[in-house]
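Journal club prep — side note

Before the paper discussion, L.F. wants everyone to see what a predicted structure for a comparable chain looks like in token form. Sequence:
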Amino acid sequence: MENTAFQLLGIENKELPVSNLLSYYLDPARNRACGYEFLNGFCRLAGIREVAETEHVTVEREVYLPFEGEHNYIDMLICIGNDGEKAERIICIENKINATEGIRQTKRYYEALQAKFADCREKDYIYLTKNNSSVNLSSHHFRHIRYAELGRLLGEEPFISMPLAKDFYDYYVLREQRLFTDVEENDRPYLPGDKEDFHTLIDYLVWKINTTESSDLHKNLFCLHGKSMQSDDHFFQLSMQNWEFPFDGGKESHPITIHLEGNCHEIPLHMELKPYEPYKKIEGSYGEVFLGRYRALRDELRSGLSFQNTQTYQNVPIRRNADLTIAKFVVSAKTYREYYCALMELTENINRVLIKNPYPATCLDPRKML
């Protein structure tokens, strides 16, 4: 396949230009050929009510919305009404490429928009991501759409004729299909220390989880493609469990996540606060009692998890925030498919322990991962 415009321009992982393009597609005033038609295709994809061609639509980018001392920037805000003066309906779209939600981001957006458009009779919230297979957001009001789903819509007539629509479809849908079909059929070798292979592996994991008849446990995996704070290695993150961890005599609680964070060489199991805080800051932020309970939970997890190819925490090399690491796992795999199967088996084993024993914290949705 020839390079797409996204690759040639180097914007395949750039949120701003992709958001600019999507805002054009969704704006009937600019996309005169099939604006309402595409907007309604997007609404059907999101499972929300369609828009009548008699309704007035405006699409704004990077809408600044301060609320309760916090600064919010809405990626795309669609206002719909019978005239251009007052919105009777809004659609908020947050677009993410290789990134997670910011601190309370969707909750902040939801609260700010609820206040700003208090008289608006209908409000819809969309969370659009490139390769997250599942998301655990601070606001449950957001509906999740992946680029692959949007790309398939853009591959249909008449949308395929819109500017760069074919490039979007070719890169985010067709490229994946061809690449990973080849990976599957030819059982392509995987080189653990090769970064390019590892980048392909991350996309392959997301594609595999979302396109195969995996268990519901697998389909709910959160998979993020990003960069490790400790090195330049890219990583994936698979969330195992999420708890509300009580402190201050039960008056307050704080979310804790258990997740696998794989890089080119190893797969550590981490326990971290959400939003993330370095281990050395935990005591200063939450006090000595909280830190003691946090350590006790970590140690109990360390003693309860024992699988093949596990390195004990005593043998984990010392580095920044090493105390967050519960265990490390070595996945022996010669091909992409072997890596996927080994990772899914490891995921099931860890979850079996976590779900069976929720420890002292309150477990959220104990029968499924994030």
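L.F.'s comment for the group: Residues 188-363 form one domain. Keep this in mind when we get to the figures.
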